[in-house]
């Protein structure tokens, strides 16, 4: 089978690799769709993502969906032909959490994740024609959710987790700073949670267009305007340290900022005075726990992710797909890889 393999910084190949067979408790899935994420781009451009550094070639991709084609011994409740997406996280060890962190599996100290070099050997992702997956990580898709949309259950889960970290949104005005794929999904998740008015802010007109299509009631072009004043609930989705000071200034006194954009792990200059003088609550939001199940339900309930998917490439053109995804001037938001989907998917 073919797979999208990163061999090192700047070295991406579509390789021929062995077809998988299902072990006990596993299924093999014919992969159909994948969405390119920032971590995929980081491994390709830099040979690392965060603190995880490539030691060996690795298959990319954790935003994926497909159809089961075979079942391993002991698998129950799943069927050949069933459309599925995945919980890409697997806890390493006994899975026991401190009582204060009960249910917050995203904070478990050791997690294998599709397409991650955090462990050696690395955990291959799903940008391949086939993949063997633990049945416990498989999430069936309802008939109303295509595998193309289902591939975005993972990033939508990130957005839903961020919304769940905030006070109740129903009837409130919300600001989302950063309208990239995650920011635009936060827009959609906020509207789905009942926010009355969602403002999206970004530097790129194309990103603001996507945010509007995803449900933003108004937008702010940061090349010409400043963030609005006194918004009680703000999601910082840009991950840019230089944006943090303005975001804290835009937050109403006593308000809440949810940091969903991934800030760098190295020293950065940030203006934080308003955090104290305005008595703000600044909350971190990391990946998700089991919100992938909530994401599937939201998709089935009509949450529309189609406007996010701006570009589509075949698996053979994965290199070009990553280049487009990395180029802000391309107008891309979520770039999709057709891993083996039928033309009607």
TrEMBL record:
Return the InterPro entries for the record.
ADH-like_C, ADH-like_N, ADH_Zn_CS, GroES-like_sf, NAD(P)-bd_dom_sf
Q: Where is the Alcohol dehydrogenase-like N-terminal domain?
A: 23-143
Looking up Pfam families in the UniProt record yields: ADH_N, ADH_zinc_N
Mind listing the UniProt keywords for this protein, alphabetically?
Metal-binding, Oxidoreductase, Zinc
Q: Where is the Alcohol dehydrogenase-like C-terminal domain?
A: 181-296
**Cofactor(s) for this UniProt protein:** Zn(2+)
Q: Which GO terms describe its molecular function?
A: oxidoreductase activity; zinc ion binding
Q: Which domain of life is it from?
A: Bacteria
Q: Record's Gene3D superfamilies? A: Medium-chain alcohol dehydrogenases, catalytic domain, NAD(P)-binding Rossmann-like Domain
Family membership: Belongs to the zinc-containing alcohol dehydrogenase family.
Protein name from the UniProt record:
Theronine dehydrogenase-like Zn-dependent dehydrogenase
- Native species of this protein? Sanguibacter keddieii (strain ATCC 51767 / DSM 10542 / NCFB 3025 / ST-74)
